Amino acid sequence: MTFTIPIDNGDALKNAETDSQRTLYPYVTGTSIVAIKYKDGVLMASDMGGSYGSTLRYKNIERVKAIGKHSLLGASGEISDFQEILRYLDELVLNDNMWDDGNSLGPKEVHNYLTRVMYNRRNKFNPLWNTLVLGGVKNGQSYLGMVSMIGVSFEDNHVATGFGNHLARPILRDEWHADLSFEDGVKLLEKCMRVLLYRDRSAINKLQIAKITEEGVTVSQPYSLKTFWEFQAFHNPTAGAQGSW
């Protein structure tokens, strides 16, 4: 009996060393974040759903987190990439605290840092698959900005990600004003989240609203909105659609 012994010339090892992994498609994702400035600071709303593909697999995912003393971060997109971003920010805040010089990172600095991180990963063709919303208050000044997964960033008085950018922003343009009270701001966010619940298949009726002021960050306990499903358009939503029965 003859045995053949394979000889490895090292090519397989070289290929393994040069191969790199990319986020080709997000697996577990969160949907819209909606945020506004109000007279005392910034309000931010998100639901707690996590979709595995098109399946609402997880229903207890917190997508709004406090960053340091002055900032609040919300994210839609890939949950594992969001966790990686939080790890980066924990290291950034820890390094800032180690200086112990009486200064601390403000929301503008954190926003600029996130813009650089997202753009850097985009240039490596290995993006972090998230759209981020960064709000905060420092020295009496409210700040609200957004960063896309390819590093495009801007500031505004109200921002929204995902479906919220299409469905919530028109509501915010009509009803937002700079002197919003906390109660009116929450009502405005709830109106936006209710519209998204009706129209976005990835949204669930379990949400959190966070606020940040000079005093710090407060994140609400999860709660549900009152809904009304008897609108005529809901009874036969495909009526008149091409190819419908």
Could you give a short description of this structure?
The protein is of the alpha+beta class. It is 32% helix and 28% strand.
Question: Would you spell out the secondary-structure blueprint of this structure?
Answer:
Elements: H1 11-18, E1 28-30, E2 33-38, E3 41-47, E4 50-52, E5 55-58, E6 64-67, E7 71-78, H2 79-99, H3 107-123, E8 130-138, E9 141-147, E10 153-155, E11 158-160, H4 164-167, H5 169-175, H6 182-199, E12 207-213, E13 216-219, H7 232-235
Number of strands: 13
Q: What does the main sheet amount to?
A: 8 strands, antiparallel
In percent terms, what proportion of residues is strand? 25-35%
**Ends: how far apart?**
69 Å
Molecular shape: globular
Summarize model confidence as the mean pLDDT: 90
Order of helices and strands: HEEEEEEEHHEEEEHHHEEH
As a whole number of angstroms, the C-alpha radius of gyration is 22 Å
- Helix count equals 7
Quaternary organisation: single chain
User: Which residue ranges are poorly predicted, with pLDDT under 50 across at least 5 consecutive positions?
Assistant: 1-7
Which structural class should the secondary elements be placed in?
Answer: alpha+beta
- Helix % is 25-40%
